[in-house]
Queue: 4 jobs
Job 1
Amino acid sequence: MPVTAKSWFLVEPKSSLEEREWELPAPGGAEALIEVLGNGLCHTDLGFADGEVRTNHPLPLVLGHEAVGRVLEAGPDFAHLVGKTVVVPAVLPCGDCDLCHAGHGNACPRQKMPGNDIHGAFSSHLLVPAGALQVLDAPGGVDVRHYGVVADAVSTAYQAALRAQVTPEDLVVVVGAGGVGGFAAQICAALGAKVVALDVDEERLALMARHGASATVHTAGKDARAVREEVQRHAKSWGLPSWRTKILECSGHPTAQETAFTLIGRRSTMVQVGFTTAKVTLRLSNLMAFDASVHGTWGCPPEAYPKVFELIAQGKLALEPFVVLRPLREVNAVLDDMRAHRLKRRVVLDPRA
Ligand SMILES: [Zn+2]
Ligand SMILES: [Zn+2]
């Protein structure tokens, strides 16, 4: 049955989102209609709202790509999902191209991202392709709405750890401990690695010291060389050779990207996780000289989500200290808070509050 949804549309960049009621059609054969329980607010949403990044779908568009919800109705192929609580991956692969078949669905050229390619989850309801939905059977004592952040921030961090092939013998340096970085530090620690978290914000570092980071480096006012020396001191104290260094750049800040690149030593691996439109100047030949590698990472293949759910259920990956709930109707005020750097935690918007 079609449903009347209440959604927040980006009508024009740099103006407030507009709440509108509209009719969502009944789901087609491979689609699911979801009642949204929570949706994490991502920095990319602010990029769209401020016109720094263009959405693939023309405006007006409902933003939001970190959804958890309950399946109300699904096409005949996915009837088994009705009534289930699901996390909607931010990257919904087609499931049927060469990259998808090779297990790289996160890089699928036909992928759909809610709030970018299709209408998103700043909404009471969401209509999405059903093939990649992740059933959440047991939330492990966690408020189910908090799982919104698993759709992107947490799963992206997990995929970054996979990309870096993190092992218990590694030193992982997480650059930028807010948002994705906070989850990356916990995930790498859960995989057995020693984690050093770098950030300009001492409050965030204090939180990381309680969740995943064995050491922290406060980078404000320090040049890249001083930061590198501090990281190397920690590595030495744990007896970890520099060639075991894996660097996850999660801030997307140009200065932090330069710092991260400076940390590359012999056989190091760096993964670029954060996003910026800014350009930085780097000496790529350092990679040659150090036999080092740099990877990008985008989203997370659907097959990896159950492992993330497992880490949460086992208490190895905490969501609650990093998340705060706000009513969806306050979305414009929350975007203002994000613009002014007033948010200390990742916001999950609740459409029913
Ligand atoms: Zn995002
Ligand atoms: Zn595909």
Note: The chain has two domains: 3-152+300-350, 154-296.
Job 2
Amino acid sequence: MGKQYQVLARKWRPQRFDEVVGQDHVITTLKNAIEQNRLAHAYLFVGPRGVGKTSTARIFAKALNCVKGPTVTPCGTCDNCVEIAEGRSLDVLEIDGASNRGIDEVRELRDTVRYAPSRGRFKIYIIDEVHMLTKEAFNALLKTLEEPPPHVKFFFATTEPHKVLPTILSRCQRFDLRRIPTPAMIQHLRKIAKAEKIQISDAALAAIARGAEGGLRDAESTLDQLIAFCGDRIEETDVLSMFGLAAQDQLTGLVDALIEGDVVRALRVVRDLDEAGKDLQRLLADLLDYWRHLLVLSLGEAAASELDVADSMLETMRRQAQRLDTDTVLRVLDVLSAAENRIRYALSKRLVLEIALIKAIKSRQAVGLDAVIRRLTELKTLGAAPAPASTPVGQPTGRSAPTDAAKPNAEISLEDLWAGAVEHLGKVTPLAKSCLVGTKPLGWSGAILRVGFDPEFADRMEFVMHARNLEVLTAFLRERLRRDVSIKFEPCDELRQAPGTTHESPSAAPSALAAEARPAARGPANTVAAAPVNMDEFRNDPMIKKALEIFKGSIVEVRK
Ligand SMILES: [Zn+2]
């Protein structure tokens, strides 16, 4: 009979502060507190499961009760250290709030807390999942916490700090343990594999880390299972099939397809993974993660140091990020994260994923409307001599507009003036003009022209009040009136008409896609739904037409 197999998580449980993986910020502070003898009565360790909360608490207990302590390097061999490590120290009581909700133990705690420790320096109570304690247990605990005897320390741990009573929280020094960064996790797993004489590829290690999502204990358990299934040689595919994960190079391939706009290739990857029984929801989550990393990389090298990816991936990602700009990455991220919400409840996860990829590719190719306008303006400035100040481009010739801009404003009725402005805007963008049909000038408030609109069409006004359109309108008014003016739109009940009488147009589906086509200046109607936008009007808009010519594009989607 060989030696009994001990699970890795237990065997590799850290025994010294320096062995705690990925929580340097916590360990450093604790060490300082011990060295400077500035110890609090109660500590709260917060963090997701399996990241080292109770392990840290136990090491802390050893540090305080070691015969050589308090010390930042407990010896690990004295009776106190050994008993604590084995969970049988009389001075260190561990209570699991989750398993029995702690009533009896807290009662015992309350009865025994005033007695001096039997052997160690302190009586230490480690309470795991402290938020799970019953109300009674909590209250008993609180009484003790209010006036703890000097020889008593409390180490609490919780995954859900918001459920811990504020009266307890306020008496604790709090430490937040984080998910273990991928490189640190991989390094740790590699060390274990080497010591256990397991042959495991880097890709397999990275896949374990990816599957464990920052939980070290989960990663160690996975390694246990892999050893049980595969013996002493572990490949990436073993890990992938255990988690239902896509291979890293499949993921990379998918991202390449997105970058290159290769819909066929992207869909092929999805098909292959689906047929191989992979978890497509998980695939989308991984893809999102991947793009998040590309986002960080697209921001420059300074941000890259914050990245949580396997070293083996960094070069590839860097190369991919170089082919993208931040705006593009953001647009794709928008599409993917919208899909992540949808895929959870979708009957066909594959369909959701495929649509998301196609949308992402389309959005990736789309040029933001603002970028188009900016480019157009640049071209205009370069190509045409500036128009004389008194003759705005596209000056209206209709009945409403005065032919002589220098005419005093007294001779222009407010209605005519406004109609002229709307006509003028129509020369630039008929779409915006159509949105202004039915508006009415209400009068002046100082230099502000108040314009009423049918409250029914508040959404439309949001569209019109885009800074660009406002600028065209005010420029026209300024020219006519020879003074500085601004425009304020306000809902006007008098203009209300039966719904559906005018402006019926198919409304563009609201979309989580890029935000840059949103109005820069938002009106009072901030909460309105998507502006109905007529695709034909949009397409025939001369400015848009010009833009499409210049960019050799087609309209993918009209967003509000
Ligand atoms: Zn010791």
Note: The first strand starts at residue 42 and ends at 46.
Job 3
Amino acid sequence: MVSGAVDAGLDTVGFTDHCSLTAVMRAEKLLWNRNFDRTYEQRRAALDILDDRHDITLQDGVEMDYEPSLEADIERFLDTAGFDYAIGSVHYTDGREVFPRESFAEMSPAETRGFVDTYYDTIETLIESELFEIVGHVDRIEWHPALRGLTTESHHRQVAAACANSRTVPEINASHVTSDPAMYHPSRPFIDVLREYDVQFTVGTDSHEPGAFGPRREALETLLAERGVDPVDPVGL
Ligand SMILES: [Zn+2]
């Protein structure tokens, strides 16, 4: 991955392995290997070795699953681990994941809208917790075919108002641009509302393989120029 970042011309790359302290989604934690709370020191040692072998700056980060009931545990873990920065993400809420493998087929339209409201309430609580430098892929539910289009301007304003009063900044995430060039998190209208509240942004390619850096970097630069966004370094926020 470091070589991929170098090949893409990046001068800095952050690694943010998935990490979950959950008890309620225990099976998913094991299935999707979100066990970084047990292995982060090994990755840190590997980053130290790679740091000597490359000119690129390596950032030692983490992407944490956020659940409101886990705040004390997350705070303790982040204090102990001492990462350069932490992304907080809502990957599940209300007992359901937000990924396309989750089915919402048996839910009524009103129940589905209620789930979306709960998702954004959880995002707001995440931002208010001040635990994280970054809130990850803030409108992630828009990637789910059953939830797409259910994010409203009122959700945009709810999140933007929370960000305006927090150190936590949203990332502009390019994880889907190779399959859908128009798809960013947050969406363009969402970015515009966040800017209205003077919210700053960081950027994330969300690369899971080395070849992803290049095209996603280009896509991010295009969007930043189009929207007039000058991203911030999450280290020290
Ligand atoms: Zn994520």
Note: The CA atoms of residues 114 and 134 lie 25 Å apart.
Job 4
Amino acid sequence: MGINRRDWLRQSLLASATMLVAGPHAAQGCASERSKELREKDDLILLNWNENPYGPSDVAVQAVNDAMKYANRYPDEVVNELKQKLADKNGLKPANFLLTAGSTEVLSLLGQHVGLQKGEIVSPYPTFPTALRFGERAGASIKRVGLDTDDRIDLDKVLDAISDKTKMVFICNPNNPTGTELLTEDLRSFCRRVPENVLIAMDEAYVEYSNAGLKGSMISLVNELPNLIIVRTFSKTYGLAGLRMGYAVSNVRNIQALRDRHLGSEIAAGWPPLVAASASLDDPEFINMCVAKNAEGKQIVYDAYDRWGVKYNPSSTNFIYARDDRFEKDLVAKMKKKGILITKWPDMTQHVRVSIGKPEHMRLFVETVEEFLV
Ligand SMILES: Cc1ncc(COP(=O)(O)O)c(C=O)c1O
């Protein structure tokens, strides 16, 4: 993919320093505020960052506890074990994987890669902004492509937007914040039509929650398409958001190029996230339970929204994106006063996004939000 080494280190250091000081969510201006609230008040209902209310699985917790006795040793073995498991699950080789501290790291590396070339990123919008933000900071221009009338990514429009300057297209499927999902066949044919000199960054953070499930993953194209990079996380269905483990999947050359520019290395995450992720892969029942309970939680909100005539997108994720015409102004602030945190997405001021917690949280969300109907 011709990643350009020029200035990479300087830019990476700058960006990493920002991450260290602020954390990835601080870019959205709310990290320290929320951490403070978390520490102060255990009974806040957190429906704002699409976390998994059930995670981590018991086997992950056990693995972390057991691993503490090895904390004096470097965790190379478990890096290899985790990559081998991921490879076996996906019919690939360990060398097709790069492990990172959450998928945020992969997204920032990819954004910087384009920025350093002063290239262009084409992206549907609104979408998850990390790759675009890091790209812009490093010098990329961003071409934002609007969604269709059902808040779905318009793949033809994205293809049309690709120009000589385009170095990367960013696709988040299912998409955050809209919760919509593309048909697997449409996405596959899109990937095959993107010119080979343009990287495809495919963010699959919510794939396990989607209708297509893992069958909808574009990982199956990694051996076929040299420009495809899949971005995955253990933060969502695996419930490990606070332990930080994500990964990139691509051909060996791209993975090597990313590894060359990744500050630290795959052992940087340390034992706890590595063993937790590895153990979680052996616990598919936990994932099935989380997906089923998530569907139950979503239904509670759908039923209420249908009763009230609130327009929403049927969600392929663990959050629901709805128009807020039926709600009082400042709904997010009003809900916060009641101890329930939800989100308004920057640039999408007419919508609210609610993450799916346990059914009892969603019933409380419904009861509380009903007070603010107009
Ligand atoms: C689409 C998407 N990608 C990536 C991330 C980053 O997740 P993490 O860095 O925890 O893997 C998120 C987090 O909310 C997300 O919604």
Note: The two ends are 53 Å apart (CA to CA).
